Amino acid sequence: MPLVTLQCDGIGNNRDPQSMHTHTECTPRLKKTLPPSKIDKMVDEERIEKALNALDRQLIPNYSAIAKEFKIERTTLMRRH
After folding, report:
1. Threshold 0.70, pTM exceeds
2. Whether residue 54 is found in the same domain as residue 75
3. pLDDT along the chain (81 residues), means of 10
4. How far is CA 49 from CA 29, 35, 57, in A?
5. Same domain flag for 23 and 43
């Protein structure tokens, strides 16, 4: 969910005789967020590959332990293994 900030432009303070508003106007503005970078995705792919290799070395795969060790979602490992 995008972050919302209020931007107050100060229109309408009683010090400005030419102002047509009698109160301060505050307009909600959405903060623009950048899409995830490809570098972050590549790092995740490397971690997933290492985790999958670790799972292959286990006789009985322990998805929870490997997911915690490599900081990956357990369900992702289960889907890909």
Report:
1. no
2. yes
3. 52 52 60 70 84 96 95 91 90
4. 40, 23, 13
5. no
